[in-house]
UniProtKB/TrEMBL annotation:
GO biological process, alphabetically ordered: adenosine metabolic process; nucleotide metabolic process
GO MF term set: 5'-nucleotidase activity; magnesium ion binding; nucleotide binding
Official protein name in the record: 5NT1B nucleotidase
GO CC annotations, alphabetized: cytosol
Top-rank taxon: Eukaryota
High-level lineage: Eukaryota, Metazoa, Chordata, Craniata, Vertebrata
Length: 314
């Protein structure tokens, strides 16, 4: 598809594939040894990385879209966005072909930051294993997250893309989270009830949730709601009774549907995510990411909002 018609998901090579050993060689022995190793192993297929099954699920959605809308270009376009050198490209191409992935657009920046190219590619979502690049992308206004591998292998659905989002500082702005951190929970509950009918401002991943909703509606239009290959989840530490209404009314004011909303009232998110088995779970707080990882969920950290300041100071 032409970039202006597609939903572009840019994925780094370390998010798509497991390059832990290669990264170690790069850090310990330098660039020349790293490139030499990659060239010597270019016929050795790379193992899946944290974004691999998410990309596979996006491609399944594309296949279903093409059946229903053969001439429509509004679908996911995966771009490999890497600061690798072109000499490493053959191994990446061989691995992509081995798994039958459809990734035609490559951007290999030879050690330079790829952030400028994200804008040129009209990127809707950027996933990387490099937290500094993700921070740079967020600051440039691009929806972005740092991918973390799960600590256990679990089976993911290969017929339905499942994406789970935290609420504050991910789909919504961090305005309410600021009150929790600075004035405590009681003041937060009071604030949310007073402002129940005032929509929250948008957060960095609102646009991507919107993109998913747009694609879902294409299936609904063909009477495929019950068989839709995308399912979205809101997994929030908020309590339903005391601070849930504002969230649901905000989504409604945006014209967005979320398939399942889980209000956990501060309970851990990991066990709920085990049940959902999302291809990716987006959260702004590292302790939720770590809790999800431990129980086998692939989690992605969105470095946005006040929680980052508290995370750094602790």
């Amino acid at each position: 598809p032409k970039p202006q018609n597609a939903i572009t998901v840019a994925v780094s090579s370390r998010a798509l594939f497991d390059l832990v050993e290669e990264q170690r060689i790069f850090e310990e022995q330098g660039l020349e040894k790293y490139v030499e190793y990659q060239q010597n192993n270019e016929n050795v297929t790379l193992k899946p990385g944290p974004a691999f099954y998410f990309v596979k699920a996006l491609e399944h959605v594309n296949a279903r879209l093409l059946e229903l809308y053969p001439d429509d270009e509004e679908r996911f376009d995966i771009v490999l966005m890497t600061n690798n050198h072109a000499q490493v490209g053959v191994r990446l191409i061989n691995s992509i072909n081995h798994y039958g992935l459809t990734i035609e657009r490559f951007c290999m920046t030879g050690g330079q930051s790829p952030i400028g190219y994200l804008t040129a590619y009209l990127t809707n979502l950027y996933l990387s294993a490099d937290s500094e690049k993700v921070q740079e992308a967020i600051e440039a206004g691009i929806a972005s997250a740092t991918m973390f591998t799960a600590n256990k292998d679990v089976a993911y659905s290969d017929t339905q893309l499942r994406v789970a989002f935290d609420g504050d500082a991910v789909i919504f702005s961090d305005e309410s989270e600021q009150i929790v951190k600075e004035q405590g929970l009681d003041r937060f509950f009071e604030h949310e009830q007073l402002n129940e009918n005032k929509p929250l401002a948008q957060g960095p991943l609102k646009g991507f949730l919107e993109d998913l909703g747009k694609i879902q509606k294409k299936f609904y239009a063909k009477n495929e709601r019950l068989n839709c290959p995308i399912r979205t989840y809101l997994v929030t530490a908020r309590s339903a009774a005391s601070s849930g209404a504002r969230v649901l009314k905000t989504l409604r004011s945006w014209g967005l549907e979320i398939d399942e909303a889980l209000f956990l009232a501060g309970a851990p998110k990991g066990p709920i995510l085990v049940k959902i088995r999302p291809h990716v779970f987006f959260d702004d707080q590292m302790f939720h990411i770590e809790g999800a990882q431990k129980l086998g969920t692939i989690a992605a950290h969105v470095p946005y909002g006040i929680a980052q300041k508290y995370h750094k100071s602790s």
